[in-house]
Structures are given as C-alpha cells and as structure tokens.
C-alpha cells in the first residue's frame, strides 16, 4: 500500500507568516501569510513536486511519520491517483506503450493519465491501476 501524505513543518518567518518545508521531499519549500494559507501553499508545492518527480522518472520516498510540530499534507486527489498509477507502473515495470496496449488506447492517452496538469477521470485511472493488479483506494481522514 502506498500513501502520498507527507509531514510538513510550518515555521514562523521573521517577516511574518510561515515557511513550509518537507523533510521527505526537500524540493517542497514554500510560504504562506498565515497558517491556513501556508497549508494551501504546501498542498500546491506537493502537487508540483509530484509532477516534477513523475516527469523526471523519479520515485517517491515513503512518507515519514509526522513528528511533533508537523502536519500531514497531500496534493489534490487527482494528483494522488495519477501518482499511484505512476508508482504501480514502475513497480510492475510496465511502460506507457504497454499500458496503452492493456487499456486498448493510444499511448498519448496514457501520457495524459500520468500528466498531473491534464484533467483525467478517476474511473479511468482506477481501471489502469486494476490492470496492474492493484486497487485505487480513497480514504477519508
């Protein structure tokens, strides 16, 4: 089971607001004017970090347990679903071309399913994940 919820630390900035960092994803550094804004910025930064990792062909580290002073944050659900498909394909050593064959579609549709900036339907992502022998599970926490 893969989770895509990472601990982030909100540190008060001298000039006001909060600086956000994530020890598991060091590329996630952002800030917000208040706690709520900082968390919203953290979610956006995680979304962009996911996109960059997927584009570069990099993996995702396992999320650490939150430490005192940290809160858990995750990108939007659609990005998490796309990341789950990406991880499942990497684990199964299935290329985009092979995934397209399994889905009976052109390879460009698989590229779109993996593109965090392209809107995709959740049932289609779930179908692709199921073809890899896994299930997409959504959890309310």
Describe this structure in words.
- This protein has two domains: 6-73, 2-Layer Sandwich (Double Stranded RNA Binding Domain); 77-130.
- It is built from five helices and four strands, in the order E-E-E-H-E-H-H-H-H.
- With 141 residues, it is of the alpha+beta class.
- It has helices spanning 35-56, 77-92, 96-103, 107-114, 122-130, and strands at 6-12, 18-21, 29-32, 70-73.
Query: Judging by the overall fold, what is the CATH architecture of the largest domain?
Result: 2-Layer Sandwich
Category from helices, strands and their pairing: alpha+beta
* Percentage of residues in helical conformation: 40-55%
How many structural domains in the coordinates?
A: 2
Tell me the name of the CATH class of the largest domain: Alpha Beta
Q: Which consecutive residue ranges, at least 5 long each, have pLDDT under 50?
A: none
Rg measurement, Å: 16 Å
Number of helices: 5
Question: Strand portion, in percent?
Answer: 5-15%
First-last Cα distance: 16 Å
Please trace the helix and strand order, writing H or E for each element.
Answer: EEEHEHHHH
Number of strands: 4
CATH fold-level name of the largest domain: Double Stranded RNA Binding Domain
Compute the average pLDDT: 94
